């Protein structure tokens, strides 16, 4: 039976095409259009599964195994359910209880791994996933190294942003975990409009340093001494830890910007109270107004609202967790966030 064109066909038909939302208070005070692509409303992720099927890496009825901090896992298990696959996920211990419960409620097997071990350890969540996939004959997604992670955003998110802004975009801003989003989106946007500025947001405590060399942004692993000088970030799922991740090698960066957990956590609460948008810390970091403020009025800045606040109720919306981490939620005026901006936090190679 034929359906109206506006009706989505099953789960797969509902994936993608998330709207751009103008963040009103942020846009008004900066004189810019600050737009968030509402990927936290996306029901799931199917691109990598469909690609694996097409490439013969995944057989019908097979097992999908992946290392995840939660968000990718949620997208994978929902898509897997609709396509008839089982999922096994390995997660670092800092992942919130809400995410773990959600993955299990959706039918995935979840294995919690220690967060302090090196990647060379068989107990590291990425290495553990590889071992389980080999033992059970499953397909290991390897989102950190899977070229279809980057490619999915090159073929979907990037074109959607370009279409919905009608090409009127001056900057794209995003934090990175696997860097698939910023790798794919930046590559597409730079092909369409070279002068679009691409800014990577990185929390203190990530494993990679970004430096300006001969006019370009390059990355390198932190030394042991550099790692000791910073506390690990407790923001889940972001902060590139290995500079060979496929996505980051494809990212066309004009600048990087360091942001601490205190600012990020406060901005989560600001967005909820003043924009009515209930998102998690990585989305709040993306929406922070510093890049728009730095560029000045009249620009259009696009970012990704990548995760829901529902996944963090026991953490960033919990007073005991805030006390444990020494986090206060004091800034309430957007001008206070802007005044906290320090241009020295930028590493960039565009003209000032």
| Name of the CATH architecture of the largest domain | 3-Layer(aba) Sandwich
Tell me the major beta sheet: 7 strands, mixed
Give, in spatial order, the strands making up the sheet with the most strands: 1-2-12-7-8-11-13
Shape, principal axes of CA atoms: globular
Chain oligomer state: single chain
Mean pLDDT: 87
Termini distance? 58 Å
- Calculate Rg over CA atoms: 20 Å
Describe the protein's topology.
Elements: H1 10-14, E1 20-22, H2 24-30, E2 33-37, H3 47-54, E3 63-67, H4 71-83, E4 86-92, H5 97-105, E5 109-113, H6 125-136, E6 139-140, H7 147-164, E7 171-175, H8 180-192, E8 197-203, E9 208-213, E10 216-221, H9 224-228, H10 246-250, E11 255-259, H11 261-275, H12 281-287, H13 290-295, E12 300-304, H14 319-325, H15 334-339, E13 346-348
Parallel strand pairs: 2-12, 3-4, 3-6, 4-5, 7-8, 7-12, 8-11
Antiparallel strand pairs: 1-2, 9-10, 11-13
Cofactor: pyridoxal 5'-phosphate
Protein name: Pyridoxal-5'-phosphate-dependent protein subunit beta
Keywords: Pyridoxal phosphate
